[in-house]
Amino acid sequence: MAEGKKSLNFIEQIIEEDLKNDYKREELKFRFPPEPNGYLHIGHASSICLNFGLGERYDAPVNLRFDDTNPTKEEQEYVDAIKRDVEWLGYKWAKECYASDYFQQLYDWAVEMIKNGDAYVDSQTSEEIAEQKGTPTQPGKESPYRNRPVEENLDLFEKMKNGETPERGHVLRAKIDMASPNMLMRDPVMYRCLHKHHHRTGDNWKIYPMYDWAHGQSDFIEHVSHSFCTLEFLPHRELYNWFIEKVSKEGDFDPKQREFARRNLSHTIVSKRKLLQLVEKGIVDSWDDPRMPTISGLRRRGYTPDSIKNFANSIGVGKRENMIDVSHLEFCIREDLNKIAPRVMGVLDPVKLIITNYPEGEEEWLEAENNPEDESAGSRQVPFSRELYIEQEDFKESANRKFFRLTLGKEVRLKNAYIIKGEDVVKDEEGNIKEIHCTYDPKSKSGSGTEESLRKVKGTLHWVSVKHAIKAEVRLYDRLFTEETPDGIKDREYLEFVNEESLKTVTGYLEPSLKDAKIQDKVQFQRIGYFCVDKDSTPEKPVFNRTVTLRDSWAKKKN
């Protein structure tokens, strides 16, 4: 392996052990099997990185297979979104597959199982079947239809397929063991009647396979070697193997299911049902709202593929579930954007600064470094003039010695420009500051090499020239939930913990270099945070999304 001495996680150890025994490297094949009933979220991103990462590590194919067995919840929109997300993360699948590709084969196998006495049609209601299942400590009861004659089962199953049976009229169940300690082995349902239009097969089918029947057989058909899923499917493994045993023949290559622990993320929900509720209730605008934990939401917010891959790799895979603080995900995007995002100046809460001794009507263009972390990023020219915007929080009329920004009688440096000194203020009738008047030292220009330019002052402020500023809509996004486990508090509804300050929209004034910024371009507004251009942006009305603040503002709240 290319990793050399790098320690292996337990999944890689399983693969390595299989390769030492009866597996051949050319037989390795993996799959990512999403259900197209919603957009993928950050949890799916970890699974994508795991399966496709294994494909890259072992030079093995990885199929993208859609588990499209429930037409009541699945849509083509979700299929398209999933494909976009996987491609955006930088992965290529070997084959694009669908469980619906195998509907005929699954049906034919089910018929053979009926003939072999391994399946039967049950005419009870779902409530009656559930009641007869028993409990983990008590065996279940056999269905009164369990010993139907084979010919009657075949006739009823064909009528189910042809739509001659009403929905909920019959189900097909595997005949296994109603006393099994694994309740999933107590004659599980294989097919149910659903007279619903399917996004791929149309109205061809009136019955649809259950997950446990379709999933393992799809792996078997595609010759998947290792089928990785989360720990909740550990009890399903016995049934997975039982079904494959019923359809395979001696010499066939049988897939192996293995489980890993889900990684939960704080201040987040990942239930597709609940995410859909957020959209339907108007709490967020859409599945790709930048506050959503969906991959498309993270992309729109300004996250990069590398940041998500680094996050997935850093939390790894394990055998026990645990909670990952969302601040770790935020750290990963800060770390990536720090390397690649150009530094620019923008003012989001402006107050006008007038340099009284700077010539009226004059302007000059100053050199500004694009990214101190990247020497190849070069520099740009920014305009400077007599009237500037600075942040309101960067000025106080009077302040203590620990305030290192602008105040009356004190000097600070304007980034890439001059040293200025606060002189006076102009207020409105309510006492609010409308203008700050200051003077500048003409010989203190940054980078000029003069003695004055080398003078040390404790504060440096960002600014934008009023005359040249671009007006933009700036969306300040924050965590969607205030509670660490919003859907894990007993007797409390997760919607109670929605953060009312998860989105604040302000008008920002940006340096003119951003007039040509394109959708998804990423920048750092110096001293404020990382931002990207939103898809709503137009040349006439630029829109920027805050990806993340420069520092973890939630750490203080938590402490």
UniProtKB/TrEMBL annotation:
Domain tRNA synthetases class I (E and Q) anti-codon binding as annotated: residue spans: 460-534
Glutamyl/glutaminyl-tRNA synthetase class Ib catalytic domain location: 28-338
Catalysis performed (reactions): tRNA(Gln) + L-glutamine + ATP = L-glutaminyl-tRNA(Gln) + AMP + diphosphate
Any Gene Ontology CC annotation: cytosol
Main subcellular location of this protein, as a coarse class: cytoplasm
Motif window: 'HIGH' region: 34-44
Biological process per Gene Ontology, one example term: glutamyl-tRNA aminoacylation
SUPFAM superfamilies reported in the protein's UniProt record: Nucleotidylyl transferase (SSF52374), Ribosomal protein L25-like (SSF50715)
ATP-binding found in the keyword field: yes
Cellular location(s): Cytoplasm
Residue numbers binding ATP: E35, P36, N37, T230, V270, S271, K272
Top-rank EC class of the record's enzyme: ligase
InterPro entries given in the database record: aa-tRNA-synth_I_CS (IPR001412), Gln-tRNA-synth (IPR004514), Gln/Glu-tRNA_Ligase (IPR050132), Gln_tRNA_ligase_bac (IPR022861), Glu/Gln-tRNA-synth (IPR000924), Glu/Gln-tRNA-synth_Ib_cat-dom (IPR020058), Glu/Gln-tRNA-synth_Ib_codon-bd (IPR020059), Glu_tRNA_lig_a-bdl (IPR020061)
UniProt region (Disordered), positions on chain: 124-147
Boundaries of every Glutamyl/glutaminyl-tRNA synthetase class Ib anti-codon binding domain copy: 341-441
Molecular function in Gene Ontology: ATP binding; glutamine-tRNA ligase activity
Quaternary structure and partners: Monomer.
Family affiliation: Belongs to the class-I aminoacyl-tRNA synthetase family.
Name of protein: Glutamine--tRNA ligase
Lineage: Bacteria, Pseudomonadati, Bacteroidota, Flavobacteriia, Flavobacteriales
